[in-house]
Design goal:
Elements (H helix, E strand, L loop, with lengths): L1 H15 L2 H13 L5 H9 L3 H7 L24 H26 L8 H14 L4 H6 L9 H11 L5 H16 L5 H17 L5 H8 L4
Helix pairs in contact: 1-2, 2-4, 3-4, 3-5, 3-10, 5-6, 5-9, 5-10, 6-11, 8-9, 9-10
Length: 217
């Protein structure tokens, strides 16, 4: 019966395209266990209209990330949205946020370029963060004269450390990268939303799609 109900809601949303019908579908997917409540809530916080209707949550502000010390990480209000990514999306959300900025915000689509090679390696690592070989592949960048790549290398070296360490390094990488591109912080926010929402709601994983398009595992 639940499968029939889902198919009916999918058909209705496909025909109408309305946020209300999509919200009803999302609620049903949560009810039958096909969508995690935490992922629905994070999509809502990232300003997806239907997820907001389905969860009752309003979008969170994504202010520019400040330079913070370890002791400030859990209390600084400007870092609250990054904590929400970690708490509701786990390490996969943090990894995808960085991948989003590299590919969508910095134009690093071509794996033949240095930035493109870095983006491809981050994508691969995002799919298998426990894979030491993929993590070590990024160490070639740790002596780069480009600040972002140095921070990325440190970010990856610390990935096996406690979650706070991952969050702090992600904060540094996102802050540094947004300062390097014409789109600035607004471009960073757009990139993160465009990258994470489809993955959170099961509408496709942009990271997986890029890795497949490159012919990688």
């Amino acid at each position: 019966m639940s499968d029939e109900r889902l198919r009916e809601l999918e058909r209705r949303w496909a025909e109408s395209g309305s946020s209300e019908d999509e919200a009803e579908l999302l609620r049903e997917r949560v009810r039958v266990g096909a969508l995690a409540t935490a992922h629905l809530e994070l999509a809502a916080l990232l300003a997806h209209p239907a997820a907001g209707l389905a969860s009752g949550l309003t979008p969170m502000e994504l202010p520019p990330l400040p330079s913070v010390e370890w002791s400030e990480l859990e209390e600084n209000e400007d870092v609250a949205w990054l904590r929400a990514l970690r708490e509701r999306g786990g390490e996969a959300a943090l990894l995808r946020a960085v991948a989003a900025v590299l590919v969508r915000n910095m134009g690093a689509e071509d794996p033949a370029t240095p930035h493109g090679r870095l983006a491809a390696q981050v994508d691969a690592f995002a799919l298998a963060p426990q894979d030491d070989e993929r993590r070590l592949a990024l160490h070639e960048h740790r002596f780069s004269d480009w600040g972002l790549t140095r921070n990325l290398a440190r970010w990856l070296e610390e990935w096996g450390q406690p979650p706070l360490s991952r969050t702090l390094r992600t904060c540094v990488v996102l802050r540094v990268s947004s300062a390097l591109v014409p789109q600035g912080w607004e471009g960073t926010v757009r990139a993160i939303r465009a990258e994470l929402v489809p993955w959170l709601l099961g509408g496709g994983d942009p990271v997986q799609a890029r890795v497949a398009a490159r012919g990688e595992a």
